[in-house]
Structure formats: C-alpha cells, structure tokens
Amino acid sequence: MKSDIMAVTKEISLSEVSCIAARILSSEAPASSGYSNGEAGILLFLTACHYSSTEKGCVTGSLIDEGSYQRRKEESILRMKKYILMDLPDSEISWSLADGLFGILHVLLLIDRLYPDPEISALLPLFMERACDYIPGDKVYCDVYLGIAGVISVLAECLAHSQYQRNGSSSDRQLLMTLSCILEGCLDRILELKDRSSGSGIWDTLLTEHPVSGYGHGMAGIGSAILKGLKVLLSIRSVSAQKQRLLQEAADSAFAFELRTFSKSLNEWPDLRPSKNPGKSLGGICSGAPGITFGTLPFADHNIGAEELYTVACRSLIGNHPVKRDHLCCGKASAAAFFLSDPPRFNSEDAVMRAGHILSLMLLDKEENNGSYILPDPVTGTSDTLSLFYGSAGIGMTLLAYGTGIPFPGLFP
Q1: Inter-residue contact 350 to 340 (CB < 8 Å)
Q2: Whole-number Å distance between alpha carbons of 254 and 251
Q3: Based on CB atoms within 10 Å of each CB, which residue in 11, 336, 383, 405 is the most buried?
Q4: Mean pLDDT on 122-131
Q5: For residue 243, how many other CB atoms are within 10 A of its CB?
C-alpha cells in the first residue's frame, strides 16, 4: 500500500456515507428484492445509517433524510410482503443467500439484532415460516452465495436468534424444531453431495466438475457453514457421534483444500471458476483472503485447520496491495471490512489504520474516475452502482463502520 496515502478521517468517511445514502434514496429501487444486488441489501445499509443517526447517537447530525428514509422503508416492507405472499411453487422460488429468500431472511435477522425496527422485524415470522418449505433439489449448488451452504448458515442464524429462543411459546418451539429438522437434512445432503463429487473428495460447488476456493463460492464457505450448522444443531438436539465425526471431517477436508490451493506466487488464492483470465486472484469475499478470514474467524480458536487457514489469509491481506475494484464482493471494501470487523488477533489500532488507508484509496479512485467508484462485476463486466455486494451500499457500510467506530456487522452468515 502506498505509504504516502493518509488514512481517511472519520468526518470525511461519514460525509461520504451521507452522500451515498442520499444518492440511493434519490434513485429508483433495483429490480431484484434480494440481498447481494437488490432491495434487501440496500435496506440494510439505509437502516444502519438511520440507526446510527437516531438511536445509537454515535454520529453528530443525521446521516440520512428522515422523511425519505421512512418512505423507502415502507416501500421495501411492502415489496417484501408481496415477495413472501406470492403463491409460487417451491420449484420457482429462489432460495439462495445471494438473491433469494434466505438472503432476505438474513437481512431481517441482522436488522433485528443490530438495528432494531419493529416494522421491519414484523416480517421475520413470515420469512421463517416460508423457510420451512425448503427442500434441496437433486441438482443443487453447494456454495454459500448460491447454494445449500448459504441455506445452512442462515438456518443456523435463525435457530440461534435470541428473540425466538426467549419467547418460548408453543408456536415458536414448533418453528424452531421444524427449522432444526431442515438444518439437519441440509447437513445430511451436503455430506451426500461431497460423496458424489468427481473423485476429488470434496464438492463441485458450482456444477462445473471441479472444486473452487473461497468463502462465497468455495470450500472455505462450505467448511464454515458445516461447523456453524453442527454447533447450533448440537445446542438444540442430539446428533449421533458418527454424524458429528463425518461433518467435522467434511469441514476439515474443505479447509485442507484451501490450504493446498493457496498460491505463494500470488500470495493469494487463485480464482478457480471458469474465467477468461484463469489463475488470477480476486481478493474478495467470493474468492480470496478477505472472505476466507470472515469464514474461518469464528472457529480459529478451536479448529486446527481453520486456525491455520485464518493465519495464512491474514498474512495475505496484510502483504498484498488492494485490488483495483472498490466494491464489497471482490474489491477494496472487502479488505477494509475485514480490518473493521474487530478480529481479536489484530492490534485494533493497526487494523483501523489499515482500513483507513484502503478507504482513502477508494475515495481517490472515485475522484479520478469522474466521481464514480470502480464497480465492475468481475464475471459479467457490468457495473451496478447501488447494491450491497457490487455497489455503493456495500462501500457505505464499510465507511459507516470506520466513521462510527462500531465493528463491521456480520454481513456474511
């Protein structure tokens, strides 16, 4: 990283957050209702801005226009109600974390936990009940973003949700038991899919006949999801010793794949998806060190493979210059988000300073790029300028964490 670049100030960071929020509120809502590139992800960012201004009292002045926010929130809630009440057969519903029902459910759980809003939280029972209809199909992706690993992660998040554990009503207990049965079924299914993969002993995550690395689409995300699912399931019901062993071995094999896939010449993980530029690294959440750190951090203290993988990923993040792109999925914002996530193994002052330098580079990118961040989707090449994963909302979340000093939220379940 350039040594002559000063870390952005918190005041400038929050001013940019306010500008991003104003731009989003003055723009049309996206066509998608989903998490990564749709309305749910944008609502998360806008609600975080509103909460930081009005409830937490952590910023001076408002980051967001109150009237515009309330109108957008009402529109988003109405849209989500329509989404969940559509009488579509299960086969026609998108269930994924990235752009489907489980992604919206993840957003609702995050808002309820971090930025409580009774009107938004009222949607939670509707989405949790609809999640009870999920059955993984014969041909299913295995990864976090698009597949069953993402479903496992959000189901684990649902089951750990304090509101439902606390209420204790018979209907809540029944809902929890149903979701725990679905979670166990998904864990069984992911073990079956591992056995079916083409002789590799791991998963063909994207049905491309070979495994890939990373959190969003690769083995790190699958291993992390398995451990999260198993931990929550054990807190609710008994799991046979044989199944626990099989799940633990499956997670270990996922982490071992990541360790042997790491490229010393890149000091990063290569993007192993079909690409016009094979062997390059993305350095993001979908593929690369930032996502691997997020995925392995919860287990780094009690799983040897996760600890080793986390350590390698941290060294990669510290040693590499940030990538050219700016967005959260596989851009500079993903590295900054990691340094702002309050990892216990980092000196917090040093971590925040590193994030500040990265954010300065992003603001310079914007200045040099006619007032626009560098936001191309690495696969399609298209530029989505508003969304959480590929646009300014995700950059805004990172700037907000830096400006307020509140650790970056768990955007990745």
Answers
A1: no
A2: 5
A3: 336
A4: 93
A5: 15
